[in-house]
Write a structure and sequence with these properties.
This is tRNA-binding protein. GO terms for molecular function: tRNA binding. By secondary structure, this protein is mainly beta. Helices cover 9% and strands 40% of the residues. It has 2 helices and 9 strands; from the N terminus they run αβββαββββββ. It has helices spanning 6-11, 57-60, and strands at 14-25, 32-38, 45-50, 64-68, 74-76, 79-81, 84-85, 87-89, 95-97. Strands 3-2-1-4-7 form a 5-stranded antiparallel β-sheet, with no helix packed on it. A hairpin with a 5-residue loop joins β8 and β9 (95-97). The protein starts with 5 loop residues before the first helix and ends in a 14-residue tail after the last strand.
Length: 111
């Protein structure tokens, strides 16, 4: 594993956002969701695409997530993903989203 410095870690803009809209994308190879995520007044709403088979729409709606905001946008099928949502694979390799336990401000920076 490569080591990084604390200065390098600080360059990664990791923030908390809230999922406000979910759209199912049917044109892809996998069952994918297009998510609109509110990162607060300073940053605003960003879009991300993710394969989230472990979650219903009801579980995703208004869920707080953690994402990286300063990676370049990535084309996923016909959609542009502006945020990399962070998660951990379960025993089947499917994403379990990282989410704060308590209420935190939208756009709060992870450190």
């Amino acid at each position: 594993m490569n080591k990084i410095t604390i200065e390098q870690f600080k360059e990664v803009d990791i923030r908390v956002g809230q999922i406000i809209k979910i759209t199912h994308l049917k044109d892809g190879k996998y069952s994918t969701h297009k998510l609109q995520i509110n990162f607060g007044k300073e940053i605003g709403i960003k879009q991300s695409c993710a394969r989230l088979v472990n979650y219903s729409d009801e579980e995703l709606q208004n869920k707080f997530i953690v994402g990286i905001l300063n990676f370049p946008p990535k084309q996923i099928g016909k959609n542009m993903s502006e945020v990399l949502i962070l998660g951990v694979p379960d025993e089947n390799g499917e994403c379990i989203l990282l989410s704060p336990d308590n209420s935190v401000p939208m756009g709060g920076r992870v450190y």
